[in-house]
Amino acid sequence: MLIRIERILKTAFINFFRNGWLSVSATLIMTLALLAIGSFFIITLSTNKIVAELKGKVDIVVNFKDEATDALIGEFKSELLAKPNIQSVRYISKEDALREFKARTTVKREVRELVSPQDNPLPRGLQVQSVDFNEYEYVSALTKDPVYSPYIDSSSYEDNKLIIENIDNATKFIERFGIVLSIFFTAVAILVVFNTVKMAVTYKSKEIEIMRLVGASDSFVRIPFLIEGFLYGLFGLVISTLVIFVVINVAASLSSSTIFARFVARMVPIYYQDFWFITLLQAVVGTVIGIGSSWLSIRKNVKI
Amino acid sequence: MEEKKPIIEVRDVAKVYGKNKALDGVKLDIYPGEFVILVGPSGAGKSTLVRLIIREEKPDSGKIRVAGRDITRLAPRELPYYRRNIGIVFQDYKLLPTRSVWENIAYALEVSDVSDEDIQRRIPRVLSAVNLSGKEKAYPDQLSGGEAQRVSIARALVNLPKILIADEPTGNLDPQASREVADILEKINCQGTTVLLATHNKDLVDRMRKRVVVMKQGRIVSDQNQGRYTC
Q1: In whole angstroms, what separates CA A21 from the centre of its chain?
Q2: Given CB atoms, is B160 within the 8 Å cutoff of chain A?
Q3: How far, in Å, CA of B14 to CA of B58, rounded?
Q4: A229-249 confidence digits (pLDDT tens)
Q5: Domain B1-85+164-169+196-231: what homologous superfamily?
């Protein structure tokens, strides 16, 4: 059994290394396919993370009039927290509001000095953050509820509405576009690799016939081709990973202030953070389409 | 010889391709140790008969028994085992182009799970039998036609088959190389291997003075011991 495995492996390596141009072209096609999938995946991943960070910076603040009791504010807060998509609701006391106001460098110093702890007109408020932007509408609706509306001083929802909607639309667009594009890229990659491997197997159909005629069993003929398909995937993976690694590092070192450069700078840590995940994804895709297309080609083109 | 049981027994075999009757009620017995030459013009059915005997194809009707076994009933997974026990030589040599002479012969042994030591022992022996010692490292495209055909014969012999089937082995060779191949086949036969040779090389047939079976239009029209090429 061991000797058979050793011989099947030997056959696969001979097939791979002695059919120079065929293996090189199949590996290159595989590399291109994995490059497309890999770089597209990195860009999508980075964009999603950047958008998520952006989303985390968006919040709305509901300010309460001085007449509102703490119990009422507490009740309002628990109604919000009952929504699973609402991430956090932070209570801002008058003191907190004052401290934050004093820290605001965008407000003129003279104006800041007008407000003091003894004479603090700043309202108490609740700062709401949600992963789902639709929840902000719920927050806004709740401020209009007759139970609370008399006690609501203001809400930043209306001010932030446009930004929220824009970010929300952009995120949805990127997500959908990303899914469509990744399906498209993967499909194209699979088709191209499949055709190349099919060509390689068809080219070798005469050899397969010879192998059968000298008494090679089904597994002895088939498995080396599957291993060859795996090798296309493996070498494609190594080369495409190297290329992406070099390109990302070179792009990051070219400092400039364009949006693209800033995006790349943001992308580098994300790439390092998810390096193994991206590599694993490419490995799975490379292996599956390498072995899969070999298997299908042998089944389709060669009568065993 | 007649008391022995035939090693190849072809019974009323017919094969049709479209409207063309390639074989029509062929009956042929070949006995162990015989050297049988199958002759006939192109399209007579020689190659079809060879393809049926090596079980590359199945007959439409009739039976073929080889070494007592009905090979028309072999399951696909039994085929490799069957083929390892018969040596096959083709007109176009059928050598693996990316493997050296040694590796081509070794492949036939490797697929049969022969040990490495055995492979090391057997290959020099068959290479010397076909006068190719020293060509172990050459690749098929570095060999002459005669040399390539002798490698193919060495590969067919290395599994020590009881039967050797050669389909137009001299078809691509010059007279000198053809004679060498014929001599090797005779030598193999002398050592006890049954040989079935399909050819339309008249000189070869007349010189060898073996049993000659003549085919025409899918039928056997003559079967003579020490026959001559008569078509």
Answers
A1: 36
A2: no
A3: 10
A4: 899 899 999 999 999 889 888
A5: P-loop containing nucleotide triphosphate hydrolases (3.40.50.300)
